[in-house]
Amino acid sequence: MEDDGFKLVSGGRRKKGPTGITKKASGSGFTYKQSAKAGMERKEPSAEDVIQKIEERKTALAKCSFYSKVIESLFKPMGTFRDRAGEKEIDVVCYGVGALTASNPQHQFALILLLRDQFKLAGELHIFDPVMAKVDRAVAEHFQCVVIEKNERGHRPVTTPTLFYMPHCGHTLYNAVLRSNWPHLPRILILGNSFATYDTLLQGTRKDHPAPYVVAAPAQEVGFPKYEVQEVFNNMSLHTFEKPGGEVEGAGGGQESDPEVV
Ligand SMILES: C[S@@+](CC[C@H](N)C(=O)[O-])C[C@H]1O[C@@H](n2cnc3c(N)ncnc32)[C@H](O)[C@@H]1O
Question: Where is the composition biased (Basic and acidic residues) (predicted)?
Answer without folding.
Answer: 39-48
